[in-house]
Every structure is written in C-alpha cells, then in structure tokens.
Amino acid sequence: MTIIVGYTPSEQAQAALDQGLRLARLSGENVVVVNAGPGGENRHASQLRDKDKVALQEKLQAASDVESEYRELLRGKSTVEEFVTLCAELDPSYVVIGNRKRSGFGRFMMGSVTDELLRALEHPVLCVKPSASPRPEHLPTVADPDVELAPETQLEQREQLEDLGEQPER
Predict the structure, then answer these.
(1) What number is the average pLDDT over the span 67-83?
(2) What is the pLDDT of residues 117-145, one digit of tens each?
(3) Torsion angle of alpha carbons 34, 35, 37, 39, nearest 10°?
(4) I want to staple 68 with a disulfide (CB 3.0 to 4.6 A). Which of 3, 31, 42, 134 is the partner?
(5) SS3 (DSSP) at 73
(6) Strands 147-149, 125-128: parallel, antiparallel or unpaired by DSSP?
(7) Is 20 helix (H, G, I), strand (E, B) or coil?
(8) What is the pLDDT of residues 36-65, one digit of tens each?
(9) Which residues contact 121 (CB under 8 A, 6 or more apart)?
(10) Which residues contact 139 (CB under 8 A, 6 or more apart)?
(11) What is the pTM of this model?
C-alpha cells in the first residue's frame, strides 16, 4: 500500500511529511509526496521552488529506509481534484496533510483545502499540526491528543475498540 503526503513549502506540510514517513516506517508502506495545484501562469505560493524541491529530495533520500517518490501535479486542476484522481490511482491507506489553525469564520471566508479534502476523499485522512509530536512507536488513534483523524476514521477506530471490549477515550 501507499501513503500519500500533501506537501507545500510550509511548516504544516513539513509536519505532515514527518508523520507520513513515521507511518511508512511502521507499516512498511511507500510514500508518495505530492505538490498539487493549478500550475502554469496561476503560480501559487503553495508550489515548490527549486530550492524547496532540492531540500525535499534530500529529506526523502535521508529517509533511506522508506521507499518514496515526489510528484508535482500542476496540470490546471485544483488541489482537491488532483488528490481525488491520485487516490483513485493509488488507493492509499492514508492521506497525510498539514493543517493550520484557522477560525470557523476564516475557513468560511477563505475556504480551506483541508476541509475540501476531508469531504472529497474516500480514504482516511490524517491532519497533522506543526506542533504535533506523536510517538513514533505507534500509529495514530482516536486517543492521541496531538493528531486529528478524519471523523470517519475516528468512528471506525472507536467501533474496532468497542468490538474488542475496550472503551475508547473521548
């Protein structure tokens, strides 16, 4: 299986990449790091510049225990459309994205790619905050205070814990 990591030149995306690599080490999966957006003349701050690409490649090479690749998807589609297409192609076990704190009003006025991805993707989405420092010895669960799992993943994990006779933390 594959873990897809959304990547932009940001602190949030760096946290997502770190978590994606941790998950890949634990699960033995490969990582596909994706920078997606309209591209072309619609250059956006989320697109990687050459120096960002070099730094990312160095980080992926340093994680030699994880098979990884970088894909830049700048074909005129929105970020969400690119992720939906890629998820249909790769059928990932997780999609890991960075998340920054924004008020409900801010999300309403400005929109949020994170919110759109959570609604559009049918795969588990792990949203990681830059300050998150989950312990590398375990996969994230509903009981982890430092990671946000998509509501569908939370519900699935709670049901699994209840089936095992354990009481999930809320």
Answers:
(1) 91
(2) 988 999 999 999 886 455 445 555 555 55
(3) -130
(4) 31
(5) strand
(6) antiparallel
(7) helix
(8) 877 655 556 678 888 999 999 999 999 999
(9) 83, 84, 87, 95
(10) 23, 26, 27
(11) 0.71
